[in-house]
Design a protein that fits this description.
Elements lengths: L1 E6 L3 E3 L11 H13 L5 E5 L5 E5 L1 H9 L4 E7 L6 H12 L4 H15 L6
Parallel strand pairs: 2-4, 3-5
Antiparallel strand pairs: 1-5, 3-4
Length: 121
């Protein structure tokens, strides 16, 4: 999987994210941390035929970069025909932060309903 800098103005949010991402102090703190220390973990995107990038995971990091008016952001570029977005999002969310019960249920529903995955899967 490739990691490269992509223009922030070409990244768009697909609307599949189950996490609620408020514009609050934690986002301001994340932006300050990125400005001070840099980005430790790239976002995940899929390159589209029109040259834009569909965000798979890392919306808070993207929003922090936009808040900083950064021109680019480091991104893992996933192939379009690879692992489904919902699976990649679930893996990233479960490893990154404690989800609320509502977000966790939405994540399971997305995998169960959207991809017809069992609880064991």
């Amino acid at each position: 999987m490739k990691v490269r800098d992509v223009p922030t103005d070409l990244v768009f949010v697909s609307g599949k994210n189950v996490r609620e991402i408020p514009e609050d102090d934690s986002l301001i703190e994340l932006a300050a941390s990125i400005k001070r220390d840099g980005l430790f973990h790239p976002i995940g995107v899929r390159e589209q035929e029109d040259g834009r990038f569909r965000l798979v995971w890392g919306e808070r990091r993207l929003r922090a970069h936009l808040r900083l008016r950064a021109k680019t952001i480091a991104a893992h570029i996933y192939p379009e025909n690879g692992t489904p977005d919902e699976v990649l999002m679930a893996l990233e969310n479960l490893h990154r932060v404690q989800l609320t019960l509502r977000e966790e249920c939405a994540q399971v529903a997305a995998l169960s309903d959207g991809l017809k995955m069992s609880t064991d899967e």
